[in-house]
């Protein structure tokens, strides 16, 4: 097994499931888990500012190496003092490796053993990502949590192709971890007497692939468990598989990972998906869903989904969610939000996004408290009841 | 002349021009003039919230009777406690009468002596505005400053048609003022010992038309000066005429208006236009320009216009305006704003709009101070130099 210390402190475990709550320490502070990370795809969470994100209690954002590499460019970001300084965010940032975006956005990608050739979705210009170059890009971005370049295949691919892709992903993770060691000074993580950690540099997460096949997931997890990484991403899910398939893939992965490192399931999700994964031992989540549906007039509330376009809200003096503590719910009526949406006002995107992210982050706060006091199962049941 | 008291206190007059500074009192507080009023067309200043508007120092918003009448509907607004409660804005609101929107947006309008038939630009449904019904709509909206229904004609119209339109506008102003008296309790304005006013109800402004013809403007101004209104709108400008034509129309209007009532030039504008009008005795302004150009990446700064799309800003660590006190300028670089704009992020619209409105409101603050200390001409020259 790896000798690398992970700056992750587990505070409590749920007795009836694999759920746990803890703190991941980064060079920008603490990330309490389970955590929901809003997605700042292009150095910005859509319609919001970092002031809004501080307000809703975000502790870690996700940003995209692929997008930032193309625009404003990693060299530009380096000159401008890194992503934190660029967007004025002073808490943690995780960057994904670009593997997913190269898969989903780029035309004519070509995977070799060395890396991936791809064409920019902006202008068709040709680019190359290698496991090492992605680490260099993440270093230029200055994110707190880096991820290794991986190969993503659609779940519908032949198993032989998935196996081949996994072999490449494994090889690339080894190369990324080796490159990380080259550029990051040793002993940049120190454990303090109280169990907390002082973290002097960015940390590295490996990405576990394997599609919906338990045997591939197990193989990938066992391999990644042996690598010098500080945490694990579970990739290749939330791409159209059923909830059952996702659960099976997670169950085939988690038992093979060391307890003491955080696990992040990429691209989730809805309250139900997140709670199912927390129960199975996942600690970290990100998703564009709460901001994307917000721009379509959909809110997540303590009573379930609310579609602000619904005529029933046109004269409603109720807040979006009477149990929510966010200023949008404290200040505005459904009637006003409904009007703004109908009138095509951009302000409606911002207001519903603030609420939706606050809702998910507050749900995580409740989950953490429930794990601490032994009521996670009960809370999970209560929330899922509203989102069935 | 009218016996109506206008709740307007003039604090100082410029010695070298007709510029003056004062306070217009409304039932929601003070509006210090010269004032720039951001435009909340549909109960929302585009991309902003009322928190942003308080932040930039807005004291009065403009909203549109035509738009609010169609959506959410004036009956709905009445049920929801009026526009202030609906949008959570607790300072002043002026509503225009809808005359301009019926002219510019509606299909197949038909003007009779009674009022205007028009078709909604949303769904083609047929509606009727009369001088009385517009006052009723404004009462339902609950705005602080109401305006009379007018007839707007393009400047290119035959003078005979403009004269006919003006005759109708004059007649309608009389009917609006009469209807206002019917529904508003008398003596709702009291002057206090210190010269300030206590205002218990919405007040009424008449709209002066007359296109770019000095003789028509004079006729319209003299007529409106005799009406029981608390202030004057100068309408029909900022619709494509030259700066010289606008100045001439204003010069033909102002001398025929009583000193003690505020004058509002509808739909201006750019810093140059506003300063030219202040010099000629105008007190109030509104325009969608600062928010519209913001959404196109254009900022107004103390050094003149800045187009954030310009490549020169891509790596610039300068703020949008180094002399601006707004939080956008204190927090973000041009590089970041430029990136957000290129990336198509909605956040860029909000951030540049906040700056642009703050810039205009701060310019008005400087104008008021300059009128008080006798340096208005100098300030005007200095600002216009940057915007030639």
TrEMBL record, chains A, B:
A cellular-component GO term for this protein: cytosol
InterPro entries: ArchSynthase1/Queuine_TRR, TGT, TGT-like_sf, tRNA_ribo_trans-like
Catalytic-site annotation from UniProt: 96 (proton acceptor), 286 (nucleophile)
Record has Zinc as a keyword: yes
Pfam family, one: TGT
Cofactor requirements of the protein: Zn(2+)
The tRNA-guanine(15) transglycosylase-like domain, residue ranges: 17-387
Catalysed transformations (reactions): 7-aminomethyl-7-carbaguanine + guanosine(34) in tRNA = 7-aminomethyl-7-carbaguanosine(34) in tRNA + guanine
Entry EC no(s): 2.4.2.29
Region (RNA binding): 291-295
Annotated cofactor note: Binds 1 zinc ion per subunit.
Pathway: tRNA modification; tRNA-queuosine biosynthesis
Any one GO molecular-function label of the UniProt entry: metal ion binding
Residues annotated to bind Zn(2+): 324, 326, 329, 355
Keywords, alphabetical: Glycosyltransferase, Metal-binding, Queuosine biosynthesis, Transferase, tRNA processing, Zinc
Name of the protein in question: Queuine tRNA-ribosyltransferase
